[in-house]
Specification:
heterodimer, A: alpha/beta, Rossmann fold, 8 helices, 10 strands, 27% strand, B: alpha+beta, 3 domains, 11-stranded mixed sheet, 3-stranded antiparallel sheet, 18 helices, elongated
Chain lengths: 242, 563
């Protein structure tokens, strides 16, 4: 709560960009097949922004999210996150960065099916918070903030899609990250839940000042973003602000 | 665990059946048994080389017949030792007397002077030699029957003078006429004097006539057949008539049991040892006290409803049951154990034994010592655990061979299969959890933490599996113990327990011991530890495999799979 509260209310602070990408290229090789997923991306992303990544399947959205989420390193080029180069970092360092500064929301929610809602949130804090009680308390607090205080002990299978996604949001915010990366977060939600999700995300973004990067096909979702990046064939073909 | 239990059970059974000597602190057992009647041993007479050859009354022992056949004195001794069964009823009183009596016979196991023990003890490598006496007992109750009588008749020479029957007138006339004809003939030839004749013969005086030689036989022709017969000597043919004067009808009832004598002051070696005492106390080392004490096997006590403290009456003497024993010497388990001296006295085998139990200093020397004893006591049957084991057949032997041949491989195979299955299941599980593992990696879980998590889970499953497995294994072992099959074991080596009077009387001299050992699957602490450790090891192996697979998953590929 302390770190979350520290970030609360800090939105759109001017300063050096959170991300600086220069000539970022990602090539996948599988046998003789070579796929250029990203081709020389140059991009700066500011803190506190909500950015939508749009584009057809295979355009490179997920690859770009993986690089921004420190899940992967580029084949070529540079990525600076908070002034720190990621391209040459070890898995250990990248893991540390992810646990501390990046939250993830997945299209399939990716909750652990055998853990309850609060346990799913608390599990994200395991690498950073040794106290089980503190993890549980913060999980309950976060679930309350997403409106699920009455569903703490429920398994994911007993939650609706919208509720599961809200648990995923609470989990993404568990370590008070600098940025939340969402990959098609409304892909499995109906329009009503999608709207609720976006409203919640916007509210949390305003309250916690986190940077939100969303890969989406959904025009409605993209319209809520402050900045829209359109990709095609591994290149950014448009960069607009709402 | 079930396999280990069964294997352990077979091992226990084998130990019980195949290595009976070790259970009584003995390496070698020396006896003199009746050889199989089919023996083709030569009958070369060998001068006995030990001082017991020729033995005391009751036969020659270790008499150098190659150990396979009885010499005549042995055979006579054997018959003599067992003869009481046939003839002793007469000694119990006059016919009609009610009796209860116990007969003790060595069966097929010949007794020999107990001094042979010291000879065996002198053999190099022997640490101790203990004598023992093992006998069959017949408990008979009933009425003394009328016994067979022998009457010798005949052989006398009988001479008698019989007055001939009075002749009829016709016979007299014929006889007279016959004589006159003879006389006339003799007169005619000048051999008859004057004075007339008289049929009775004899010499006439004066001018009478005189029979010349040969005339008497001539006159004999004139006699009637009746007169001739009464003049012959009668010789009665000599013969001995054995006749049952009154058939020996009796209501005698017979039951059998076995007895043995042990040395109370040597409780660590003998047909039963103090270690096999289940209840009560050992025989007193005071000979006087021990004289009225017996030990009873648990099986016999159970069968007869006997308890420690009760008394047994044998031949009008009361013996107090001081302890219950559970001897394990297969084939030589007796029902009642007396002190040796007591049984020797009771069975009229004073200073005689029929077994020597030998301990050898070094287990490796057992065969060498056995050969030395055989040389020292020609004709002795020398049994070792190894020779017993060689002679054991039956399903136990087969099962144990199977366990020896396949048990280890089977257990290893099952273990490997269990590990393989556990590993594959864990791999499969990890593959199914790519999303979950990728998510954990994405939200900041390190590779090490994920691997530890996977291993902790599989270890937990291993612990759970171990607990459940031990429970199931224990249940299987209990079921096997409850309904497990009986394993037969047949040994032709240890003849003692097989000796029985009926067999002897029917000249069945092949000594074999057939017994059934109930298969159990004992649950040992070590077995549980092994089973549980196996489960944990399986969990660890599976966890290591799963962890290795999980560690290879990059968070990016997990997300890409998802996206």
């Amino acid at each position: 709560m302390t770190e979350v509260m520290a970030n609360e209310g800090t939105t759109n602070v001017a300063g050096p960009p959170l991300y600086e990408l220069r000539g970022v290229t990602r090539v996948y090789s599988k046998g003789n097949v070579v796929v250029n997923a990203l081709r020389g991306i140059d991009l700066d992303l500011a803190r506190g922004e909500t950015i939508a990544l749009e584009g057809p399947s295979g355009s490179g959205k997920t690859t770009l999210l993986q690089l921004l989420g420190a899940l992967d390193i580029p084949t070529a080029g540079q990525i600076r996150f908070g002034g720190r180069s990621l391209e040459n970092e070890s898995d250990k360092v990248l893991t540390e960065i992810r646990s501390k500064e990046i939250g993830f929301v997945f299209q399939q929610f990716n909750l652990i099916p055998t853990l309850t809602a609060d346990e799913n949130v608390a599990i994200a804090m395991v690498p950073r918070e040794p106290s089980r009680e503190k993890r549980a308390a913060r999980a309950q607090e976060l679930l309350a903030q997403v409106g699920l205080e009455h569903r703490l002990g429920h398994l994911p299978s007993r939650l609706s899609g919208g509720e599961q996604q809200r648990v995923a949001i609470a989990r993404a915010l568990a370590n008070a990250p600098e940025v939340v990366i969402a990959d098609e977060p409304t892909g499995n939600l109906d329009s009503s839940n999608a709207k609720e999700f976006m409203a919640l995300l916007h509210d949390l973004q305003e309250r916690f000042g986190v940077t939100i990067i969303i890969a989406t096909h959904d025009e409605e979702v993209a319209s809520h973003a402050q900045r829209r990046l359109r990709l095609r064939d591994g290149s950014i073909i448009s960069d607009t602000k709402n | 665990m079930g396999i280990i239990g069964v294997s352990q059970g077979l091992s226990d059974a084998q130990t019980k059946a195949l290595s009976p000597l070790g259970s009584v602190g003995t390496d070698i057992i020396v006896t003199r048994t009746v050889a199989p009647t089919t023996s083709t041993a030569t009958t070369t007479t060998t001068t006995p080389t030990n001082r017991f050859a020729g033995g005391a009354p009751g036969g020659g022992f270790f008499a150098g017949q190659g150990g396979t056949a009885l010499n005549s004195s042995d055979a006579a001794a054997l018959a003599s030792a067992n003869s009481s069964v046939i003839t002793d009823l007469a000694k119990l009183g006059p016919a009609g007397t009610k009796f209860t009596h116990d007969f003790f016979v060595p069966g097929t196991l010949i007794t020999f002077p107990s001094a042979a023990v010291s000879d065996v003890a002198k053999v190099k490598g022997v640490t101790s030699a203990v004598g023992a006496l093992s006998l069959d007992a017949l408990h008979e109750t009933g009425t003394v029957p009328k016994i067979t009588a022998s009457v010798k008749t005949g052989g006398q020479t009988i001479s008698t003078t019989v007055k001939p029957p009075t002749l009829t007138a016709a016979q007299q006339a014929a006889e007279r006429s016959c004589i006159q004809a003879i006389v006339s003939k003799q007169i005619g030839t000048g051999t008859t004097g004057a004075g007339g004749t008289h049929p009775s013969g004899g010499t006439g005086g004066g001018g009478g006539f005189q029979f010349r030689a040969g005339s008497s036989s001539a006159f004999a022709k004139c006699l009637t057949p009746a007169q001739k017969a009464y003049q012959q000597d009668v010789v009665v043919p000599e013969q001995t008539v054995n006749e049952v004067l009154n058939p020996p009808t009796t209501n005698t009832q017979t039951s059998t049991y076995t007895v043995a004598g042990v040395n109370p002051s040597d409780p660590t070696a003998g047909l039963v040892t103090k270690a096999q005492l289940v209840k009560g106390t050992w025989l007193s080392t005071n000979p006087t006290t021990a004289k009225s004490q017996v030990l009873v096997t648990t099986a016999y006590a159970s069968q007869k409803g006997l308890k420690v403290g009760q008394t047994l009456t044998i031949n009008s003497v009361s013996y107090k049951i001081v302890g219950l024993v559970n001897p394990t010497l297969t084939g030589d388990v007796s029902d009642i154990y007396f002190s040796l001296s007591n049984l020797q006295s009771l069975s009229t085998n004073t200073s005689r034994i029929n077994e020597i139990l030998v301990s050898v200093a070094n287990a490796k020397d057992v065969n060498t010592v056995a050969k030395a004893i055989k040389k020292e006591l020609p004709g002795a049957t020398v049994l070792t655990s190894a020779s017993l084991a060689d002679q054991v057949t039956g399903s136990l032997s087969n099962a144990r061979k199977l366990a020896n041949d396949l048990g280890g491989a089977l257990a290893l195979l099952i273990l490997l299969a269990a590990f393989l299955i556990a590993g594959l299941l864990t791999l499969s599980n990890v593959s199914k959890r790519v999303r979950e593992i990728g998510s954990l990696r994405a939200i900041g879980w390190s590779r090490g933490r994920v691997v530890r998590q996977i291993m902790a889970e599989t270890l937990g499953i291993g612990v759970l599996g171990g607990v459940v497995g031990v429970g199931i294994g224990a249940a299987i072992c209990l079921i096997i113990g409850a309904v497990g099959p009986g394993l037969t074991v047949t040994s032709t080596g240890l003849a003692v327990g097989a000796s029985n009077v009926s067999g002897l009387l029917h000249q069945t001299t092949t000594a074999s011991v057939a017994s059934t050992i109930h298969l159990t699957a004992p649950i040992r602490f070590l077995t549980i530890v092994i089973a549980f450790a196996g489960a944990l090891l399986g969990g660890l192996v599976a966890g290591a495999v799963g962890g290795w697979r999980a560690a290879r998953l990059s968070p990016a590929s997990a997300l890409r799979d998802l996206g």
